[in-house]
Design brief:
Radius of gyration of chain B: 20 Å
Structural class of chain C: mainly alpha
Number of domains of chain C: 1
CATH class of chain C: Mainly Alpha
Largest sheet of chain C: none
Oligomer: heterotrimer
Order of helices and strands of chain B: HHHHHHHHHHHHHHHH
Number of domains of chain B: 1
CATH topology of chain C: ABC transporter involved in vitamin B12 uptake, BtuC
Chains: A alpha/beta, B mainly alpha, C mainly alpha
Helix content of chain B: over 70%
CATH class of chain B: Mainly Alpha
Order of helices and strands of chain C: HHHHHHHHHHHHHHH
Number of helices of chain B: 16
CATH architecture of chain C: Orthogonal Bundle
Shape of chain C: globular
Strand content of chain C: under 5%
Strand content of chain B: under 5%
Chain lengths: 529, 349, 398
């Protein structure tokens, strides 16, 4: 890149041999990082590689155990975010740091407030916001409440918030995770504009495509260490993937085409409300057949979560009908649905799927504790519970010191395997899997994907809901796109393209039938989660 | 605070006043009864209002406060004891507020620094307050012959209207309190007036100042506040202690303004009712004040009914505020959303 | 600041080797002692601060504590008195602990116990039945009254989200109001004998008496007689402890209760009827407190008296927390608290320290137990592994 070769390179931020140790994990080990003025540095690595930890250290949220940080060549100690903000470092966190019940202006003023005539001066904040949004093409309404904004808009607020505090170094942590491909492209335009105007950017991601789209330079982290540095023109997808994971990875899930059987799950005109009483599933109808994976694609927050909760009995069904093999299960309690041989891998494993303080063994019978052989009458049978655990731990390769260890001590991937083991180790008619590989390492992703395909091949109907388009495209036989509580299209997976799905996810009307002869996009492993 | 709740509160207060007028002996004018009901309501609502504001600062910053009761009880005792020993009203008042602040500091230390479950921490403070006031009451008051009444310490509006500086504020009130029928309503004592002023001050602080914006941010999304350089721990400590000072003022009402004597467990659950007022008022100063007035009206009805010799057991009428509280927190009349981060200790990695 | 450090360091240098030697000598036993280390140090710390408070008040703390021990364990009578006082504490502590396990905070022990005494006493004096039926019926009445008074907040919590902390406190005051009404009116439950001026019921029939453990010791003449005869209620308390432990860790219901307490969303996911569990466990919790009240009526007071157990609910919370919500821990903690209470009279007569100091010491114990990090920090004990923790506070609205 021209940029990297120029002689007038000015290093704005440098980290030297940063080490950070959490109890039991070395999050960063001797990490060195340099950021030049006006460049976009992509920090690539899979989940748990230590990218976020490193950035939190630079932003003052964590403190390194050893190593030094230099800003504009000066050694600095960053004790808290106020220090880093004062040094011109801004950060857009993966989980937005915005107060939902406050307005955009209040959120942006927070921390830099000024009083005027005995009151908070929000008028001048509003003024600055409008200036900034015009200058960088970031459109936001200063008086809107954050809770009413879409994720894309909230992200813009986060960027303006950093710019408002005069950030010249901007750190973005997984900024595209919640965006449609088109929204991501819009973000890239903004980033390039910022770069043109002299802002230096660190861009954290695990998606290879984005690295090629926007980065000037690439740094790869694996298990807390820097394993390589390169530029987009020198790297290939395969080389980056191998650097990230540490071995060559299978590029696609092995999957035979298969004739689907009779419908298992039939959903008719289903409507569901969210917690606030707004209808977020608006008359959805679809069917999933035996031996088929129906993937539901969509940007998060378009009613997918509520749909799954309604199907599994965790949320009230407002209208419409849900049946499994002719059994009317609309509004049934979770236990009845469970007993109808429906397996459920919940979206939020910490919240729903596991009791973190319980042992692995107890979690493996979390919904079956009352059935023989785990209970006799009302008395629990510990022996069988342990025996079951030992069997599943082997079968599903759960890495744990033993069955009686609290599940909280396991890694994300192994926690998820506990859930998969529990749900798949009984005969199923229907499997509902929501975000089955979120926050999970590549090895576990491959394993979990294989398990889902095996389940499909044994004749189970599978409903897969995922925010990862790549996952949907890799596993599904048919793909339904959900937008604003409606299923806007159902496409055969074999002919669907990323662009087409992206447009549908964004709510624009795309031709439902794909012109023939479009080249099928190959999937890189880093993208399958 | 929803409109439904305001209407509910208004309706209940009107019904209570109406009932008092209906039950009163025919020798009394209806206007007199209503005015006396309103006057008692304002008086009784004073500690509830202050307790509610104490909880408001605390909970808006994300710390649950069920220790209002203990803070008020401690302050009632300390204020009375210091007042009696020094024969100084001002010293008693300051000591009361300081002791409320100290209990609050303990609450903050346990729940913010040590991350003890905030409800347990509050319970601990309550138990500690019961124990300490009981023990030292026996030691310092019951066994010695100290009294506060003899020195005539409980202030009146007239006496305050004569004083320099503050007299300026209390003169017009004094004048109003001489007007025939509505006079009793304005004839409130200083802490009662301070409570009302504090409702307005709190509203201003919470919604129109930097401090308020930061307090709300810390209570809604502490991590977000942290990422813009706001010290979550300091904000929570400060707000909890401010709450404690206000609760101390509320405690002082019992022994320095209402009845000049202390007895164990004298707050008898009014700290908890103040908390219910806070919840019912949807964590807003004016909503909470309205709810406090509602409970005040219920108590006023109780004392009036006793006066008029209504043939219902005082025990039964005395249950009305508690019953109302249950109805209120059960969300029968609309629902409010508490600060999102309430109850969660902030964990900085 | 430095002073505190010195004290803390002094404690450390003195206590750490002591602990080490104890651990070394006891070997395998040390592992079993570990869970009670923090509660033990909490009690020690509270007693030390209590001593300071006593010294400040101008009394001799050593004399006071000597009196405390003598009054609770110094004689057969004293021990009997301690065990009798322990009984309601065990039931109250178990009540709070079971609710805690389901993530619920029952502050309503006082009201539930009061209702238990009222119901037990009413059955006791109103009905004339053979002892085989009368006594169980009186106890059952207490259980039922407690179940209802505890079940109401459970029901409200599961249906409307009303926080049980507020509702149980309010139900305490309602119970007191109700009792005040019933016990102050001759036409209702007040003892109608012409000499009676206090709010209490008539004496219960002898057929409803819970007998003494050693035959021939029962039936002392009046309620004013010191409760120094060990009755079968003590045995019931121990049995209830064992039953509670079995219930929590060996039954399907216990699994459900613990799951709801640890993670209600996961409980729902696992097919547990969370609202029902919440309602029932609060009912069971109240029932235990109510049974404690009924035992107090049938074995000690032989009638219900107003204002007899002020502060019981808060003592029960302290006991449950000190016992780490483990039934056997509750038993030990109840024994400790009963010792403090039963020794306090002797302490007062021996050293002139007012018995109210016990409440201060209890509060201090509670502070140190609740903030076990505080104890670990004071004595430099490292936390080990992941301990099972229940989060109680889930916000007010929902």
């Amino acid at each position: 890149m021209a940029n990297a070769a120029t002689e007038t390179l000015e290093v704005v931020l440098e980290a030297r041999s940063i080490t950070k140790i959490f109890p039991g994990v070395i999050a960063n080990e001797n990490v060195n990082l340099k950021l030049n003025k006006g460049e976009i540095l992509a920090l690539l690595g899979e989940n748990g590689a230590g990218k976020t930890t490193l950035m939190n250290i630079l932003y003052g949220l964590y403190h390194q155990d050893s190593g030094e940080i230099y800003v504009h060549g000066q050694p600095v100690r960053i004790k808290s975010p106020s220090d880093s903000i004062a040094m011109g470092i801004g950060m857009v966190h993966q989980h937005f740091q915005l107060v939902p019940v406050m307005t955009v202006a209040e959120n942006i003023a927070l921390g830099n407030e000024r009083m005027r005539r005995g009151r908070l001066d929000l008028a001048s904040v509003r003024q600055r916001i409008l200036e900034l949004s015009k200058r960088y093409g970031l459109d936001v309404d200063p008086d809107a409440y954050v809770k009413d904004l879409s994720v894309g808009q909230q992200q813009r607020v986060e960027i303006i918030k950093a710019l408002y505090k005069n950030a010249s170094i901007l750190i973005l942590d997984e900024p595209t995770a919640v965006l449609t491909p088109q929204e991501a492209d819009e973000l890239f335009v903004v980033l390039r504009e910022l770069k043109q105007q002299g802002t230096s950017i660190i861009f954290i991601t695990h998606k290879l495509r984005e690295v090629f789209a926007v980065a000037d330079r690439i740094m790869v982290l694996r298990r807390g260490k820097v394993v390589g540095e390169t530029t987009p023109d020198q790297a290939t997808r395969e080389s980056l993937a191998e650097m990230m994971v540490g071995r060559a990875v299978i590029l696609q899930v092995e999957k035979q085409t298969r004739e689907p059987g009779a419908p298992v799950l039939v959903v008719e005109e289903l409507t569901v409300d969210d917690d606030r009483g707004h209808q977020v599933v608006n008359g959805v109808s679809f069917a999933v057949c035996a031996g088929e994976v129906l993937g539901i694609a969509g940007v998060q927050g378009n009613g997918q979560s509520e749909l799954v909760e309604a199907l599994t009995g965790l949320r009230a069904v407002k209208g419409g009908r849900v049946s499994v093999l002719g059994n009317n299960l609309s509004g049934a309690l979770p236990r009845r649905i469970f007993e109808a041989e429906v397996g459920h891998v919940p979206e939020d494993r910490q919240e729903h799927g596991l009791v973190l303080s319980y042992s692995v063994a107890d979690n493996l019978v979390l919904n079956r504790y009352y059935q023989p052989p785990f209970a006799k009458g009302i008395v629990l049978n510990q022996e069988h519970i342990l025996e079951n655990a030992e069997k599943r731990i082997k079968e599903y390769d759960i890495r744990t010191p033993g069955p009686e260890v609290p599940v909280a001590t396991l890694s994300g991937g192994n926690k998820q395997k506990v859930i998969i083991a529990r749900e798949l180790s009984r005969p199923l008619k229907l499997l509902i899997a929501a975000q089955p590989t979120r926050g999970v390492d590549v090895g576990s992703i491959e394993f979990i994907h294989q398990q889902i395909i095996n389940e499909r091949d044994s004749g189970t109907a599978v409903l897969l809901v995922s925010a990862e388009l790549d996952e949907i495209m890799a596993l599904s036989d048919r793909i339904a796109v959900m937008y604003k509580g409606k299923i806007v299209a159902v496409l055969p997976a074999a002919s669907a393209t990323r662009e087409q799905l992206g447009l549908l996810m964004a709510g624009s009307d795309a031709p439902l039938i794909e012109p023939a002869g479009v080249k099928h996009e190959h999937l890189a492993p880093g993208e399958t989660h | 605070m929803t409109r439904g709740r305001f209407l509910f509160i208004l309706a209940v207060i009107v019904v209570l006043i109406g009932a008092a007028m209906y039950l009163s002996p025919s020798t009394l004018e209806n206007e007199t009864v209503a005015a006396s009901m309103l006057a008692t309501t304002l008086g009784v609502a004073t500690p509830l209002t202050l307790g509610m504001l104490a909880g408001l600062f605390c909970e808006r910053s994300g710390v649950v406060n069920i220790a209002i009761e203990g803070m008020m009880l401690t302050a009632a005792f300390v204020g009375y004891t210091v007042g009696a020993y020094t024969q100084s009203l001002i010293l008693g008042l300051l000591a009361a507020m300081a002791s409320g602040g100290m209990m609050a500091l303990l609450h903050a230390w346990l729940s913010v620094t040590f991350k003890v479950d905030q409800i347990i921490s509050g319970t601990v403070i309550n138990i500690l307050a019961f124990g300490l006031t009981g023990y030292f009451n026996d030691l310092l008051l019951r066994r010695r012959d100290v009294d506060i009444q003899s020195a005539g310490l409980t202030p009146t509006i007239e006496s305050l209207a004569d004083r320099p500086v503050i007299g300026f504020f209390f003169k017009p009130i004094d004048a109003l309190s001489d007007v025939s029928v509505i006079g009793p309503i304005f004839n409130q004592k200083p802490i009662a007036w301070m409570a009302i002023i504090l409702v307005f001050v709190t509203h201003y602080v919470l919604f129109y100042t930097t401090w308020g914006l930061r307090t709300r941010a810390v209570g809604e999304h502490p991590h977000a506040a942290d990422t813009v350089g706001i010290n979550v721990f300091k904000m929570r400590y400060a707000n909890v202690v401010i709450g404690g000072l206000i609760a101390g003022l509320g405690g002082a009402y019992f022994t320095l303004e209402s009845t000049p004597q202390f007895e164990p467990l004298l707050t008898s659950g009014r700290g908890f009712i103040a908390l219910a007022a806070l919840i019912f008022g949807g964590w807003t100063p004016f909503g909470g004040w309205a709810a406090a007035l509602l409970f005040g009206a219920a108590s006023a009805f109780q004392s009036n009914a006793q006066q008029f010799g209504v043939p219902i057991s005082a025990h039964i009428i005395g249950m009305i505020p508690y019953l109302l509280t249950i109805i209120v927190v059960a969300g029968v009349v609309g629902r409010a959303f508490p600060p999102a981060a309430i109850g969660q200790p902030y964990q900085k990695e | 600041m430095t002073k505190r450090r010195e004290i803390a360091d002094g404690m450390k240098t003195r206590i750490a080797p002591l602990l080490a030697s104890v651990q070394a000598r006891l070997g395998p036993l040390a592992g079993m002692l570990r869970p009670i280390l923090v509660p033990f140090l909490a009690v020690v710390s509270a007693l030390m601060i209590g001593a300071i408070v006593i010294a400040i008040s101008g009394r001799n703390p050593l004399l006071a504590y000597a009196g405390l021990i003598d009054g609770s364990w110094g004689s057969g009578r004293a021990i009997a008195g301690t065990l009798v006082r322990m009984t309601p504490y065990v039931f109250g502590g178990l009540a709070v602990a079971l609710a805690f396990r389901a993530g619920l905070f029952n502050i309503g022990g006082e009201g539930q116990l009061l209702l238990g005494t009222l119901a037990g006493a009413w059955v006791g004096y109103q009905l004339a039945l053979p002892a085989v039926i009368h006594l169980p019926l009186a106890l059952l009445a207490g259980v039922l009254a407690g179940f209802i008074w505890g079940g109401i907040p459970g029901f409200l919590k599961s249906r409307t989200g009303a926080h049980e902390v507020i509702t149980t406190i309010m139900l305490n005051y309602l119970a007191i109001g109700l009792a005040g009404w019933l016990l102050n009116d001759n036409r209702l439950m007040k003892d109608p004998s012409p000499t009676n001026v206090i709010a209490r019921t008539p004496l219960i029939a002898e057929s409803a008496h819970l007998p003494a453990l050693i035959p021939g010791q029962d039936a002392y003449p009046s309620a004013s007689a010191a409760p120094e005869i060990v009755h079968w209620g003590v045995v019931l308390a121990v049995l209830a402890t064992i039953a509670a432990s079995f219930f929590l860790w060996r039954t399907v219901w216990g699994f459900e209760v613990r799951t709801v307490g640890a993670n209600p969303s996961a409980g729902r996911y696992a097919g547990i009827n969370v609202p029902r569990v919440i309602t029932l466990i609060m009912g069971v919790s109240g029932a235990l407190a109510g049974l404690g009240g009924a035992i107090q009526v049938t074995a000690v007071n032989y009638r219900a008296i107003l204002g007899f157990n002020v502060g019981y609910g808060f003592d029960a919370i302290a006991i449950a927390l000190l016992g780490k919500n483990n039934p056997f821990g509750v038993l030990l903690a109840a024994l400790l608290f009963a010792s403090l209470r039963s020794g306090s009279t002797r302490m007062q007569s021996l050293s002139g320290v007012n018995a109210d100091i016990i409440a201060v010491i209890q509060a201090l114990i509670l502070i140190f137990v609740a903030a076990d990090q505080l104890v670990r920090w004071l004595y430099r004990i490292r936390a080990r592994g992941l301990e099972e923790r229940t989060t109680l506070t889930r916000g007010w609205g929902r």
